[in-house]
Each structure stands twice: as C-alpha cells, then as structure tokens.
Amino acid sequence: MAETITLPAGKKIYFASDFHLGVPDYTSSLAREKKIVAWLTQAEKDAHAIYLMGDIFDFWFEYKHAIPKGFIRLQGKLAALCDAGIPVYFFTGNHDMWMFDYFEKEIGVVIYRKPVDIQINTHKFLIGHGDGLGPGDASYKILKRFFNSKTCQWLFARIHPNLGIGIANYWSRKSRISNNKKGESFVSEDQEFLLTWCKEVEQSQHHDFYIFGHRHLPLDLHVNETSRYINLGEWVHFDTYAEYDGTTVSLKKFEGA
Question: Which letter does DSSP use for residue 121 in this model?
Fold first, then answer.
C-alpha cells in the first residue's frame, strides 16, 4: 500500500540524485558538496520532505567501525534537517548500495533500497534510483544481485578500509561520470530505458509522476497523456533537482553558490 502524505499549503517536496561525491577529484567534489549544502539550505525554508534518490556518493561502504573519510558537511546538514523535523529519505543507488544503518542511526534519515509508491495529496508517485530497471543491461543486473548478497558484503568487510576504499576510489576514477566531460546527451525516447519501464508499469497501475535518477540526464517526458517521467539528472554537470508544490512537479537547476 502506498504511503500517503498530506502536503501543507506553502510547503514543497524536493527530489535530487546522483551527487557522486568523491569524483573526479577531491577539490571538485568538495566544491560540489558545498553547493549541495547551499541548495539544501535554500530548500529547507519551505521543505516538507527531501528525497535523495541514490548515488549520493560515488562509493560508500560501512565497515563495522569505519566509514569513508570526508563528506562531513553534507552529513552535518542532513542531521540538522532531520533534527529540525524535516524528514530526509535516502535511496541507495548502484554506487552506494553498501549503505547499511549508519545514516539511519546517526543522522535520522530513512533508507529505501527499492522503488516505492507514495501518494502526495491527490497525486500518485513511483520513485526510486532506477538502476536495474527496464530492458537490457543483463550483466549489471546479475552483478547487482551479487553485490547485494550478504556473502559479497561479508567478504569486502574483511578487507582493511585503507585497501578496500582505495580499490573503490581507483575504480571510481574510471566510472562513466568521472570520464564524461560534458555529461550525458538525449538520443530519443525509444532509447530511454527507464521511460520504457515506466510505460510498462503504467499499463497495469497509474502514476501521475515517475521520478528517478541514475540516467544522469535531466528529463521531463510524457509516459502518456496523464503521466510524466522525470529524471533528476546529476550534479557533476547539471545541478538539477525537482520540486513538487502540491500541484505539479517542476524540474529546476540550482543557480546558487
């Protein structure tokens, strides 16, 4: 059953994804983190809730007694939002699927690992990160099942954090977002696999808005005459996010610090 949210007058719900903090280098990642915190500071003025839709970090693994170094400004801001009574919902993505309970216990965010249905006022939403959905990418879907397995997580936890995080950071520098200097580009609706998936879901269950990340491209496309698919883009090149004001969802670009 879908979670139901009543949005008070004058309040908004914010969505953002794919910050990919940690790449392509320390300096640019830190500057991006400060920009994200500035956006959150702006959003908290009228935010009823904030949804972070995955790949917030380019790599994340929680050892029993250690977490990846850095990102303290974002963690502090999220803790302040939760302490102020603004709920923060965090979807794990393919880059930060090894997030366990640290953020829930220490910060107070709510973790989701799969897409969820929510109803806000009269509108129905289906939201998630987006990895592993739609046609194709069979090799990744198999790999995702392995990475999500307790066996894989147990084995990685046996590696010393200096080595384990070092290996992960090496592979991060080879990721598509680290090596794409201009960002993703739109080809056609037929090649948007998440749009295809949304259209398949829509045949059996109506949603007014489908909101996802993962694609790294800000998109606002029609699923049909009464339903829209919105991809949130990413913050390495685009600095885009979405907001719902009780009437509609708008895709916007952060122009602040």
Answer: T
